[in-house]
Amino acid sequence: MSKKLPKNIMIANLLAQAAADAAGDEDHRAQFDHLIDGIKSALATAHGPEVVHDRGLDSDFIAARHIAQDKLRMSPAEFENVVSVLNTPFSRVIKISPSGKGPRDLPDFLKMPDDEMRIAFDLRTPYDAAFFVARHGKSWGYSEAQVLKAESELRPLDRARRAKIAEADEVRAAAESARIAARASAGYTATLYSADGTSQPYL
Description:
With about 200 residues, the protein is mostly helical. The protein is about 60% helix and about 10% strand.
């Protein structure tokens, strides 16, 4: 039979544990704030939405979300308020499921637990955010009005995205043409052989 600790020792142990927990919370809060500040700083100097993926800001956001949920025990409303500063012309904080529930057409073993779903936010580009709500919002609990709004936002974003892709293709084609012209002027040639045995010069 274990001996009961004296009351003053029990109190001292509880106080020590409380102090350790408080110190741990401070460390976790510092990590959380560092991640959010880093994302905010990267977005402030960005030139386009590509920064969300190219700089790994979406991954940093997920790390911050896990700290908020598992370590700081933030409420969804508190978390959403803190990360609202990350809504910029190049980024959107999106709640995966407004209802806090997984889609009805997913089997239970694939669904996130309800406590995780309530704080399931992502950082996405405006295009990715609008695409998710427009294409999958109905399954995840978005209203018809929200889905229609996302569809209207998606159309110009998609046109801009396609125009940017076409522009990048033109830049690559021009660079390749310049490279070939430079090789030709320098006298470099090569021969390309096809599967049918024919060949042609390649500059």
